[in-house]
Design a protein that fits this description.
single chain; 414 residues; alpha+beta; Helix Hairpins; 2 domains; 3-stranded antiparallel β-sheet
Length: 414
């Protein structure tokens, strides 16, 4: 029954890790599935970027066409204005020629029912004068008719030109409106694409982060987070290795975890353990300050990274398994601001391997390193040893780091 309870507790802790570290909707995906998600999302992002570039080219071309149409509309308006001037000039000429015609035949027009032409013709003194007068009347009549026909034709031609230019102007305005409408549609499409980009970029980052976690754990391509952790635990069950079965090298020496620093709070041990709150009244590690700077963190000795995780409060943590003076010990480095690039669970490290930078993640009031030293591996996400419960870890497992590492109040070398 006790073993069953431990298994249930373990599964709950693993589930907590999965829900905190990985997206809820994708927590059961394998490493190969995450890789596929990354590749698919990158492809989608590239397609959207290509579409945005294409839209930008189309918009630029439409703007160029609109500019050309606006120029044509302006030219057409100038032609209409010029033609209107010609029409006005023609109307003036019509009026002048009408006046001229009236002056020429002002005494020969038909008025009040009497024919002045006939009066003029029959006023001849002899036959020769009659023929002459008839000829004059005929010529005046033909000249008058010709002038009026030419003027009428000129008016009709000008009206036709004006109507044609007005139609052209309307067609250009309609084409401009269509292009502006098309431009607005493309701009709206680009706006929609850009609006969805942050979400897609977040999906990509989420998949990449999840993939990185699985890779750092040395998970296999067909394993999800739970299967991977179960395999790691089973391979570590004997206690002789950690993190994928890597052997633990003996320490060549024990060093301080930072190149300089000072003690903010020393180790005091657990003191009284409160089982309800699962906390100690004492301090089970040592707090090292760096005068507010995020300086590099190194393992205190050669060893193997046993786990990399984020605790429930959000602190970034790295734990390293060592063999110091023939004793298996675990050094824990908490509140890191970031992990060093390329580290992973199961990785062999030396005292010169940078594992992260000092920070203030999780429950922390300032930049510092909280370092613990213990004889068993425990954390709230990854089981290391069935016997290493949190109470046992806090009350009996932790060691005073000062018994293994020379830690003065302040120092400026390792």
């Amino acid at each position: 029954m006790k073993k069953l309870n431990k298994i249930i507790t373990l599964l709950i802790l693993v589930s907590l890790f999965v829900s905190c570290a990985l997206p809820i909707n994708t927590k059961a995906k394998t490493m190969s599935e995450y890789q596929a998600d990354v590749e698919k999302t990158i492809k989608e992002l590239q397609e959207k970027k290509d579409k945005l570039a294409k839209n930008a080219q189309e918009i630029a071309k439409i703007k160029e066409n609109i500019s050309s149409i606006e120029s044509q509309i302006k030219d057409t308006e100038n032609q209409i204005n010029s033609l209107q001037k010609e029409i006005d000039d023609s109307n003036k000429k019509i009026e002048e020629k009408s006046d001229e015609s009236k002056r020429i035949i002002e005494y020969y027009q038909v008025a009040n029912g009497n024919n002045a032409y006939l009066e003029y013709a029959f006023g001849a003194t002899d036959i020769t004068d009659l023929i002459y007068r008839m000829s004059v009347v005929e010529q005046l009549t033909e000249y008058n008719n010709k002038i009026m026909e030419e003027l009428q034709q000129l008016i009709e031609e000008n009206d036709a030109k004006k109507e044609k230019l007005s139609t052209k102007k309307k067609e250009l305005a309609s084409l401009k409106s269509q292009l502006e409408s098309e431009k607005e549609k493309i701009e709206a499409d680009s706006a929609n694409i850009q609006a969805g980009m942050p979400s897609l970029e977040q999906q990509l980052k989420s998949a990449q982060d999840s993939l990185k976690i699985l890779k750092n754990m040395n998970c296999r391509s067909n394993e999800d987070i739970i299967a991977c952790r179960n395999r790691i635990y089973n391979s570590n069950k004997g206690g002789g290795s950690q993190g994928g079965g890597a052997s633990v090298p003996s320490a060549n020496g024990v060093f301080r975890p930072t190149t300089y620093g000072r003690i903010n709070q020393a180790y005091s041990g657990c003191g009284y353990y409160n089982p309800k709150k699962k906390v100690c009244t004492g301090h089970i590690g040592v707090d090292i300050g760096s005068y507010g700077k995020e300086i590099p963190i190194y393992p205190i000795a050669d060893g193997v990274i046993s786990s990399i995780y984020k605790d429930p409060a959000g602190a970034l943590v790295v734990r390293v398994k060592h063999k110091i003076r023939g004793e298996i010990l675990y050094s824990t480095y908490a509140h890191l601001s970031r992990y060093a690039s390329g580290i992973y669970s199961g990785m062999e490290v030396t005292s010169e391997t940078r594992i992260g930078d000092m920070g203030t993640t999780g429950y922390s009031t300032g930049i510092h390193l909280h370092m613990e030293l213990s004889v068993c591996d425990w954390n709230s996400q990854l089981k290391g040893d069935w016997k290493c419960s949190w109470q046992y870890y806090a009350e009996s497992s932790t060691k005073n780091p000062a018994n293994y590492v020379t830690i003065p109040y302040t120092w400026n070398n390792r």
